[in-house]
Amino acid sequence: TPLYSILQHILRESPMSKVVLLYSAKTYSELAFKKDIEKMARAFPANVRVLFATTKEKGVEENLVDTDKVNMIPDGKCGGKMGRFDESHLASSMRWLKCTNDNVEVLVCGPPGMPESVKLQCESLGISPECVRYEKWW
């Protein structure tokens, strides 16, 4: 996933930046770089929050905090949930980041339809469409 490389770059070049990664797949085994991302969350406990979601696998892995609110994930841990992400996850991310609608960047990578859906969710939260970036790779 390109977002893993972007996360590495941000933390290397601007280690005081705060980043939230909302990462979803059908099952935990399909989450590319999952262990490496968990290590990053431990290495930058005050700066990184990660919430993994699965759409076909029930339950949450033992090492993850069972939550669907980014702002409830403790330092150095990653959260896990079942189901798709929605507007509430973006809102809890913004609360943890302590950002406003004009000082946030949203980077999206996903299958057809997902980037457009996330963009609409961001707009309903008052985030400018210019702050939402994605590539269509299909």
Core attributes:
two-stranded parallel sheet; 4-stranded parallel beta sheet; 138 residues; 20% strand; 4 helices; globular; alpha/beta
Give an overview of the whole structure.
The mean pLDDT is 89. It is built from four helices and six strands. With 138 residues, it is an alpha/beta fold. It has helices spanning 2-13, 34-43, 87-97, 114-124; strands spanning 19-25, 48-54, 65-66, 78-82, 106-108, 132-134. It starts with a helix and ends with a strand. Helix 4 links the parallel strand 5 (106-108) and strand 6 (132-134). The longest helix is centred in the first third of the chain and has 12 residues, at 2-13.
> What is the terminal separation in angstroms?
14 Å
Q: Extract low-pLDDT stretches.
A: none
Strands, count: 6
Give the DSSP E fraction (strand runs of 2 or more residues).
15-25%
Kindly report the spatial arrangement of strands forming the biggest sheet.
1-2-4-3
Coarse morphology: globular
Major β-sheet annotation: 4 strands, parallel
Structural class, by secondary structure, is alpha/beta
Query: How helical, in percent, are the residues?
Result: 25-40%
Tell me the series of helices and strands, N- to C-terminal. Answer: HEHEEEHEHE
In angstroms, what is the radius of gyration? 14 Å
Average pLDDT over all residues: 89
Count of runs of 4 or more consecutive helical residues = 4
